[in-house]
Amino acid sequence: MSQAEPQRRFPWIPLLILVAFVLVTVWIAIASAPHFTRPRLEGYIRSAGAWGPFILFGLMIAQILIAPIPGVFMPILAGALYGPVVGVLIAAGGTLVGTATAVFIGSRVRVLLLKRWNGAGNVERAQTLMGGKRWLALVPLFLFPFTPADAICFVAGMIGIKPLRFGLAVLLGRVPKDGALALAGAGLIHLGDLVRH
Fold it and tell me: Is 143 inside any structural domain?
């Protein structure tokens, strides 16, 4: 007599942890949104002295993971406070670490929930859509401000896009954009010139 196949249980604990994380993040985002203004952030970073660049680096990462932090403004602030070299390094480094973190979180969600809810076949179809040369479509989405670049990072992790292709899209689009914004903050380029050209 063959043993009955064990019934697969739904992962309630990881789901509850994920829901709690999302609720806490949303609550923090709503409660802290009024504090993320240019004068407050600039004053706080300036008052931190030698820790200022590290705090700004952390804020660059956080603005990718938490919605209310103004993403376009942070690289500009990096350039304005720390100049065209250190400011660009802070902006680019924070962007890379924040993007990688968002992709990692998305991949954990995929492992725990997405494949169970949508089926592995659907996830594989989404991966196929972003395969081949279609990953290049991410470059303009990363290159221009006010696109849902942060959400794209989470989704990329969820659908399991190949890390090399996604990394290239980030290096060709998101890093140059944030570098240009930092240079604008340092006064070396004008944002109006970028729009016209």
Answer: yes
State pLDDT tens for residues 106-163.
Answer: 887 765 565 555 556 665 665 565 655 677 788 888 888 777 788 788 878 877 788 8
In a domain, 109, yes or no: yes
In the Cβ-directed half-sphere of 88, how many Cα atoms lie within 13 Å? 13
Residue 124 included in any domain: yes
The domain tally of the chain equals 1
Domain residues for the domain of 121 are 35-191
